[in-house]
Amino acid sequence: MKVLITGTSQGIGQAIARRFLLEGHQVVGIDRQQSTLSHENYTHFVCDVRDREHLPQIHDVEILINNAGTQNEQDIDTNLKALIWVTEKYAMQEKIRSVLHIGSASGHTGAEFPEYCASKGGVMAYTKNVAMRIAPYGATCNSLDPGGVITPLNDCVMKDPVLWQQIMDETPLKKWATADEMADWAYFLTVVNTFCTGQNILVDGGESINYHFVWTE
């Protein structure tokens, strides 16, 4: 299938792209950074998803995964507004089979930076809106809402022993997910799944049970 993924240069987006390439899909990536992937079935566009007027022309997308995002950096513009623009441009057509938004546990709990929480909460609501609108195509739309994931974005707390211990004290499973684990979830929700739609899937090791947020000052 033809899969469009935003934010493929690192972290969760890169892991998702690798997973789909491994399974033999045609993958198109959009990222404001240069490509970090090299594969015959991978096409990369350098573009900031906030630049609505210059989003590339990509036709007949079958799976759309909105992964591109920021944390405490114009979060509503990137995490919500740009996600809406990308979805409206590429997903509202008869070839679409699945849309997945990468949200956040913070959209459920509110336990993070104010604009970040607001952006991810908006993603949760928009997911339901899209699910209703693409259902006539037989397509699904869900959000995958991770808690802590081991990526470079989180180095500032992962490498601080005191903060890391506080985070583990708040996480019942005493670990964070890997990017590859999130890629497995993304693959399941967009390829294996054909019936679950309009849902916000919280995958956070149980951290949201405690509703406490730990971060560096």
Short description:
This protein is α/β, with parallel strands linked by helices.
List keywords for this structure.
alpha/beta; about 220 residues; single chain; Rossmann fold
What's the helix and strand layout?
Layout: E1 2-6, H1 11-22, E2 26-31, E3 42-46, E4 63-66, H2 75-90, E5 98-102, H3 106-109, H4 114-134, E6 140-146, E7 149-150, H5 155-158, H6 161-170, E8 177-178, H7 179-192, E9 200-203
Parallel strand pairs: 1-2, 1-4, 2-3, 4-5, 5-6, 6-9, 7-8
Helix pairs in contact: 1-7, 2-4
H and E order: EHEEEHEHHEEHHEHE
- Assign the CATH class: Alpha Beta
- Helix and strand content put the structural class at alpha/beta
Q: Approximately how much helix is present in the residues?
A: 25-40%
The N- to C-terminal Cα distance equals 44 Å
Number of strands: 9
CATH superfamily: NAD(P)-binding Rossmann-like Domain
| Uncertain residue ranges | none
| Global outline | globular
- Please, how many domains? 1
How do the strands of the widest beta sheet line up side by side? Answer: 3-2-1-4-5-6-9
